Amino acid sequence: MSTKRNNRTMxxxxxxxxxxxxxxxxxxxxxxxxxxxxxxxxxxxxKHEYIAFYTDLEVRELQAKIRRxxxxxxxxxxxxxxxxxxxxxxxxQIKAGMDRVKEKVERx
Length: 108
Description:
The chain has 108 residues and is of the alpha+beta class. Helices cover 41% and strands 34% of the residues.
């Protein structure tokens, strides 16, 4: 299992552990079997792990696709309404994919 960090800061309260407030200093990503990645953060006080989401190859490809589509929004000649609809459609696919992977992982 490998782990990598993404740097983002946000306030949080450990509501499932020690109930202390802390800053989330980035998400960690752990590789699981089957090309699944778990993205999470950990309370620095009690080490309780909070899972943000799971992804598989299909979801990560959709995430890359949405980034490409979102860059089109910077072009004033692109049909903004159609591009925004495409973004919303991909977001729905990503959510469905993450839900599918979460159920697969947590079901065993």
